[in-house]
Amino acid sequence: QVQLVESGGGLVQAGGSLRLSCVASGRTLSTYAMGWFRQVPGKEREFVAATRWIGDNIYSAQYIDSVKGRFTIFRNNAKNTLYLQMDKMNPEDTAAYYCAAAREIATMMTAGYWGQGTQVTVSS
Fold first, then answer.
1. Secondary structure letter of residue 56 according to DSSP
2. How far apart are the first and last CA of the chain?
3. Cβ neighbours, 10 Å, residue 91
4. Which of these ranges, 28-32, 37-41, 81-85, 116-120, has the smallest mean pLDDT?
5. Pairing relationship of beta strands 113-114 and 95-102 according to DSSP bridges
6. How far apart are CA 37 and CA 98, in angstroms?
7. How far apart are CA 11 and CA 15, in angstroms?
8. pLDDT, mean over the chain
9. What is the distance between the alpha carbons of residues 95 and 105, in angstroms, rounded to a whole number?
10. Which candidate, 43, 81, 91, 87, places its Cα nearest to that of 67?
11. 73 with 49: CB under 8 angstroms?
């Protein structure tokens, strides 16, 4: 059984940075797509960024428009860990952030593994 554990959330001022980590256990996820979602109370969970294996040791990345140029998703397969580097943060980034893993990005929401989430709060 795959387990995902997020960490790195917290309180940061607008313009600041945080790095989220997601450690996976139970199996090696080097060929899995992995991603980050976020959710604000009362709203649906929102895709933020994902990375997927496309062959050899090459991974692609995709982001929602609102975080492009500010957030970077990357992974360390030796540590079975996914990261999200968040820079130039703004209050609209405030949410609970969740790590997910699945065979494909498209199946993360319905058939993926999920962590418990880590809260990120950006003050203005």
1. T
2. 40
3. 11
4. 28-32
5. antiparallel
6. 5
7. 12
8. 95
9. 21
10. 87
11. yes
